[in-house]
């Protein structure tokens, strides 16, 4: 099932939660909607699901107008962070629920329902929990059961809204991998919402980065990390150093200091220079585009994170390999291995 969204606008009062969103999701994709809180991710998902309606724009499934259909007719499965299981029903009955409430014309007989539930519990690898109640499950198990329940009706589309948001970091990581391999097996067109960049980059085929009701970039995890299209994406994904610079007559300046960096093709005016922390290479004083004094160093896993006061007035944090042995008080040269400059 393909999903196509065209020029979608959704306002709450005068505030545009979605401000002209265009998106195409291919059949069988696992797409992540990534963005800060309030960027419109849930609103977009709810409109696709048929739980909310846009002010204008189009949503189609396989070319058919989805906005003309109610939520039930759209045949969409959901898993939400707080979409609790029914507490008074066993795991088995929770998963069976969607099948039992189907319209009589399409409802399966009891033996078929039981076989289908067993199959789904096998799929999420929790068949041994069939007789338990939700209160007797861990948070991760509950979300896997919620997924089995969403899949019971054989949805054409699966929508997941921060499905692992309430779980601790270790369980989240396990479930991410599990979701990716489950998706590989079932291959249903799926969209999941997250504000966790690592989750989006690790799980999805493509990532949609949103901010303030607009799409900033759509691309593969590599695309959005390696070639961010906007200043927002660069700042939001990965750990970036952001420096206010001035582009003027083919020269880039930080404060008064001209930087030995290529300014080809850049529009003159105030701009932002972005460098990943680990892309600032440390050398002797005078060796790079920047010079600075190390203020503070702490070990941070495989790297040492150093606070450096640059000549030009800004203080930045860089990640250098541990063997560089930086010390507070050192004067160093810094050369960005890669950088990007955006106007504004
Ligand atoms: N029913 C509503 N009434 C008024 N404003 C709303 C309503 N629903 C959402 N909003 C506003 O629309 C904006 C987008 O909300 P949305 O829930 O889509 O963001 P989100 O990206 O999913 O955020 P989060 O990661 O915090 O869930 C927010 O500013 C929110 O306050």
Model description:
One of its GO terms (cellular component) is ATP-binding cassette (ABC) transporter complex. It comes from Bradyrhizobium arachidis. Involved in beta-(1-->2)glucan export. Transmembrane domains (TMD) form a pore in the inner membrane and the ATP-binding domain (NBD) is responsible for energy generation. InterPro entries: AAA+_ATPase (IPR003593), ABC_SmlMolc_Importer (IPR050093), ABC_transporter-like_ATP-bd (IPR003439), ABC_transporter-like_CS (IPR017871), Mo/tungstate-bd_C_term_dom (IPR008995), P-loop_NTPase (IPR027417), Sulph_transpt1 (IPR005666), TOBE-like (IPR024765). This is Sulfate ABC transporter ATP-binding protein. There is one protein chain. The protein is an alpha+beta fold and 344 residues long. The protein folds into 2 domains: 229 residues, Rossmann fold, CATH 3.40.50; 105 residues, Beta Barrel (OB fold (Dihydrolipoamide Acetyltransferase, E2P)). It contains 9 helices and 20 strands. The strands form 4 sheets. The chain has a 6-stranded mixed β-sheet, with helices on both faces. Strands 13-12-11-14-20 form a 5-stranded antiparallel β-sheet. The protein has a 5-stranded antiparallel β-sheet with strand order 15-19-16-17-18, with no helix packed on it. Helix 3 packs parallel to helix 5. The longest helix is centred in the middle third of the chain and has 18 residues. The model has no long low-confidence stretch (mean pLDDT 91). The structure holds adenosine-5'-triphosphate. Adenosine-5'-triphosphate binds next to helix 1.
């Amino acid at each position: 099932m393909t999903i196509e969204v065209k020029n979608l606008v959704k306002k709450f009062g005068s505030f545009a939660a979605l401000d002209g969103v265009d998106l195409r999701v291919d059949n069988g994709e696992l797409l992540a909607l990534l963005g800060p809180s309030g960027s419109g991710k849930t609103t977009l998902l709810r409109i696709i699901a048929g739980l909310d309606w846009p002010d204008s724009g189009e949503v189609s499934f396989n070319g058919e107008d989805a906005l003309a259909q109610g939520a039930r007719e759209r045949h969409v499965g959901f898993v939400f962070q707080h979409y609790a299981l029914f507490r008074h029903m066993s795991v088995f009955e929770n998963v069976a629920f969607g099948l039992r409430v189907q319209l009589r014309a399409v409802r399966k007989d009891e033996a078929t329902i039981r076989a289908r539930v067993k199959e789904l519990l096998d799929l999420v690898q929790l068949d041994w929990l069939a007789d338990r109640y939700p209160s007797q499950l861990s948070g991760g198990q509950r979300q896997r059961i919620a997924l089995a329940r969403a899949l019971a009706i054989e949805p054409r589309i699966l929508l997941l809204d921060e499905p692992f948001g309430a779980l601790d970091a270790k369980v989240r990581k396990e479930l991410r991998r599990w979701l990716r391999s489950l998706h590989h097996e079932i291959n249903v067109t799926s969209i999941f919402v997250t504000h966790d960049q690592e989750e989006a980059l690790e799980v999805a085929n493509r990532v949609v980065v949103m901010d303030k009701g607009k799409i900033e970039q759509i691309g593969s995890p590599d695309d959005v990390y390696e070639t961010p299209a906007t200043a927002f994406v660069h700042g939001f994904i990965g750990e970036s150093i952001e420096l206010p610079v001035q582009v003027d007559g083919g020269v880039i300046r930080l404060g008064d200091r001209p930087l030995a960096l290529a300014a080809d093709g850049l529009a003159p005016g105030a701009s932002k220079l972005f460098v990943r922390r680990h892309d600032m290479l440390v050398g002797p004083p005078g060796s790079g585009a920047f010079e600075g004094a190390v203020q503070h160093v702490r070990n941070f896993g495989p790297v040492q994170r150093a606070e450096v006061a640059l000549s030009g007035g800004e203080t930045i944090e860089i990640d250098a390999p541990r063997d560089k042995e930086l010390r507070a008080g050192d004067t160093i040269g810094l050369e960005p291995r890669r950088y990007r400059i955006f106007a504004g």
